[in-house]
Amino acid sequence: MREVAVIGVGLTKFGEQWDISFREMLLEAGIRAIEDAGIDGKQLDALYVGNMSAGQFVKQEHIASLIADNAGLTPIAATRVEAACASGGLAFRQAVIAVASGHHDFVVAAGIEKMTDLLTAGVTGALATAADQEWEVYQGATFPALYALMARRHMHEFGTTEEQLAMVAVKNHSNACLNPYAQYHTKITVEQVLKSPPVAKPLKLLDCSPITDGAACVILAPAEKARRFTDTPILVAGTGQASDTISLHSRQTLTGLMATVEAARAAYKMAGMGPKDVDLAEVHDCFTIAEIMAIEDLGFCKKGKGGQLTEEGETALGGKIPINTSGGLKGKGHPVGATGIAQVVEIVTQLRGEAGKRQVDGAEIGLAHNVGGSGGTAVVHVLRRMD
Amino acid sequence: MREVAVIGVGLTKFGEQWDISFREMLLEAGIRAIEDAGIDGKQLDALYVGNMSAGQFVKQEHIASLIADNAGLTPIAATRVEAACASGGLAFRQAVIAVASGHHDFVVAAGIEKMTDLLTAGVTGALATAADQEWEVYQGATFPALYALMARRHMHEFGTTEEQLAMVAVKNHSNACLNPYAQYHTKITVEQVLKSPPVAKPLKLLDCSPITDGAACVILAPAEKARRFTDTPILVAGTGQASDTISLHSRQTLTGLMATVEAARAAYKMAGMGPKDVDLAEVHDCFTIAEIMAIEDLGFCKKGKGGQLTEEGETALGGKIPINTSGGLKGKGHPVGATGIAQVVEIVTQLRGEAGKRQVDGAEIGLAHNVGGSGGTAVVHVLRRMD
Fold it and tell me: Residue A272: helix, strand or coil by DSSP?
């Protein structure tokens, strides 16, 4: 199995993108990644695109062909990968496997979602198709409701507070202010979060990630060829993926995601590392409770201590384990199919030392954690500088 | 790169499946494949599902998690792959790459589509999302119209006749009568095809593949471990995938699919074989003209001679190169995401010598050819007996 490295990254601005089409968005991110890698488009030999639901959002399936066509990359092998909000993370993983196998050398892993072309109710309905249609959605459960169930149980078992949930949002908005690509450049306070309109108790509007348009792109290469393109290739040291029951009612626990635990175990094992080796992480904070569960499930603290770790400031910039320096899904925005790729872009940017005002000093090892639905899918990647 | 073999296959009956749900359909095909391989479900470590548009057809995305859950396979790594009607073929290819890479050993490649829960107009609209939404669908082009353009050009350039198109449907219905899993067990005549209602001139109703529910499943293993499970493992000797412009107006030609030509070139090269080595093929006959173009693009005859080869009976059972012994998309049915996997199931069944009345005597090498949209994606696999 060959080692694989990231040699280029690119993003669009995240937010409401009314003046650019679906196909143009990914082209913008792709051109940035290609220029960043200094690679010729003709050298690329495969493309993986993470996208949750262009069929519902913009009435377009078969988007890998569309993207290859619009980017002038035909006859490149072009494949769309879907696992709800983990589509991007899985696209990245398929690209890693394709390079590792020797089937392809230079591979694009991209992610895109254009969500604001629909009205909000339509978006919520489309996103709900990531839950179990027969056992959850038919009963009226949307994603805020499902994560609210997990939040209530976490509060009941471990004494996690609404203030601690709010602190996740406050931190991530603060980080987003330092990220030019983020949707929100607005600092918020704990009081503002607590007073924001209720969505599904105890989750309030400012506990929820927004609806976002955006695209992200990375270029992968065999590690032994990576230095032809960049002085700071970033090695994909570990990759892990796991599934769990798609609906909550069959789970052993509501206070964590077993898919995250399993995916992390596999990624750490492959990397020969553990959570203590990680300098920073991008985790899947679709709701504030999701970040608290994630930092526990990934091993950055004991189960039940995520709220406390957040309150103590250890997940902020300058803390023991900075989480979501990009602003996370909450502050940077959450174009669902793009999120998993955008997380990798942030980790690569940090490990290169190019993150500007949000730079984590001396970052050598980073982790990206992407979740589909309420935890039916999770994927974890451990990246490190090649020195 | 490790060699990869198929050790088990399974299908559901193709057709209108009103009494079984989406999730149950794939379970049925999966259990057959697992029993066929004689493998324990606990040994499986990854699942790839080809599906075009469950989001539109049954309001369910995130289906790889759903399938893993419903099959009791969690925490298996579960990934959905989409490329319109080539979704199954690409899922198979990702599974092959995953085993080849060493990341996974025993991998399920499955395909599913449940299309008849929508009214026909809804299905046609959903399928149209595989074409270019802005440049084709918005103008009113549906898939019969796009393939009709190709048919007219093929007739104009090469003298292909409506009777020759009809002969494809007649042959495939005849083959389907010998396949217990096929949607249609009805022989038809050239006259019946010619007199069937027009859909998009020159294509008539009986030139078009039907709307179908169905699921298909294969189990892959590293070739060196395959004989633990079966006496007749089937080697994946070659795999090739290519893209082309998603819309027809940018193509260099309308009388063939360049994506098929490129994918075949890659698959033949990897297999160290050419079209003359192939004993039988399953090709993507979504419309009769598509089979004629495919047998040319795959090299079984010269460009323009596909109609003649069909008329001479060389693509029928007993001919020089039997095509679509399963009944093809036309006779067996076309549950779009399942088709690419079902093609592999037929080739494996033939190479094992288990195809009953439709058996091709002494078949050693077979080819599966799956197309997305009007040729924006094509994927070709060459399989052979391991002796």
Answer: coil
pTM: 0.98
Establish whether the linkage from the previous residue to B75 is cis, with ω within 30° of 0.
yes
Give the strand pairing for A365-372 and A377-385: antiparallel
Residues 128-187 of A with CB under 8 A from B: 129-134, 137
Residues 6+ apart with CB under 8 A from B292: B154, B160, B164, B165, B168, B306, B307, B310
Read off the pLDDT band of B238 (50, 70, 90). Answer: very high
Contact B245 A74 (CB under 8 A): yes
Q: Which residues of A touch B122 (CB under 8 A)?
A: none
Phi/psi region, residue B111 (left: phi>0; alpha: psi -120 to 50; beta: rest), is beta
Q: Establish whether B334 is a catalytic residue.
A: yes
**Residue B250 to chain A, least CA–CA distance (Å):** 9
Q: What is the pLDDT of residue B118?
A: 82
Of B53, B55, B77, the CB nearest to A241: B77
B241 vs B260: CA distance, rounded Å:
8
Asked if the C-beta of A90 comes within 8 angstroms of chain B's C-beta atoms, the answer is: yes
CA A176, CA A339: separation in Å to the nearest integer? 14
Question: For the structural domain made of A142-206+236-385, what CATH number should be given?
Answer: 3.40.47.10
Banded model confidence at residue A118, pLDDT cuts 50, 70, 90:
confident
Chain A residue with CA closest to B376: the answer is A65
Structure tokens at B307: 């109609």
Q: In this structure, what DSSP letter does residue B29 have?
A: H
To the nearest whole Å, the CA of B200 is away from the closest chain A CA by 23
A334 classed as catalytic: yes
Tokens of B291: 């089979």
H or E element at residue B95: helix B87-101
Query: What is the spatial distance between Cα B118 and Cα B126, in angstroms, rounded to a whole number?
Result: 9
Task: Give, in words, the CATH class of B142-209+235-385.
Answer: alpha beta
The CATH code belonging to domain B4-119+212-233 is 3.40.47.10
Query: What are the two backbone dihedrals, phi and then psi, of residue A16, each rounded to the nearest 5 degrees?
Result: -90, 115
